[in-house]
Amino acid sequence: MGAAVIAEGGAQEVAFLVDRFASTTTGVTSAIVLSTDGMKLAASMSMQTDQADRFAATASAVYALSSAVGREFGFEGYQQSILRYGNGHVIVTALGEGAALAVITEHDAKLGQVSYEMSLFAQRVGVLLTPQVRQQLRGGLVV
C-alpha cells in the first residue's frame, strides 16, 4: 500500500472522527482540527466552510498566545485553553506537534467532561496526523 493511499485513509478517518466528536460529545456544538499556523484540517459538518476557516485562524491565535504566555513564565508543553463566555465556551487542546482540536460548547456544557473527551480525542487522532495526512487535509481533498 502506497503512502498516498495511507494518507488518504488517515485523512478520511480524521475528518470522520472530528465530525463524530462534535455530534456525540454532550455539550459540544462544533469542532475542528487545525494546524497551529491557522489552517483548517478537518471540521464537523455543523460548521460552514467559511466559518470553520475563520475559527481555525482564531483558534490558532489562542494557541499561539497561550503558548507564548506559558513560555514567558517558564512553562513548556502547551495543553489547553478554555475561553468562557456568557453563552458558551471555546476550548483549544493540543494534538501533538503543530496541530490542535478546537471546540465550541453550549453554555451549560460540563467543561471537565468535554476536556476529558478532548484529551482522549488527542490521544487517538494525534498519532494519525502524520505529515502526509496533514498535507492531504490541507489540500481539502477530504469532504
General description of the model:
The protein contains four helices and five strands, in the order αββαβββαα. The chain is 49% helix and 23% strand. The protein starts with a helix and ends in a 5-residue tail after the last helix. It has one domain (3-138): Dynein light chain 2a, cytoplasmic (Beta-Lactamase), CATH 3.30.450. Strands 2-1-5-4-3 form a five-stranded antiparallel beta sheet, with helices on both faces. The model is unreliable at 1-7 (pLDDT under 50). It has 143 residues and is α+β, with helices and mostly antiparallel strands. Strand 4 and strand 5 (99-106) form a beta hairpin.
Secondary structure layout:
Layout: H1 3-24, E1 28-35, E2 40-43, H2 49-72, E3 80-85, E4 88-94, E5 99-106, H3 111-126, H4 131-138
Antiparallel strand pairs: 1-2, 1-5, 3-4, 4-5
Helix pairs in contact: 1-4
Overall number of strands: 5
Order of helices and strands: HEEHEEEHH
Q: What is the third-level CATH name, the topology?
A: Beta-Lactamase
Main beta sheet: 5 strands, antiparallel
If you average the pLDDT, what whole number results? 88
Strand order of the largest sheet: 2-1-5-4-3
**Would you identify the CATH architecture?**
2-Layer Sandwich
Q: Can you identify the CATH superfamily? A: Dynein light chain 2a, cytoplasmic
From the alpha carbons, calculate the radius of gyration and give it in angstroms: 14 Å
Number of domains: 1
Class computed from helices, strands and strand pairing: alpha+beta
Low-confidence stretches: 1-7
User: Shape from CA axes?
Assistant: globular
Protein name: Roadblock/LC7 domain-containing protein
Domain Roadblock/LAMTOR2: 14-105
InterPro entries: Mycobact_SerProt_Inhib_Rv3364c (IPR053141), Roadblock/LAMTOR2_dom (IPR004942)
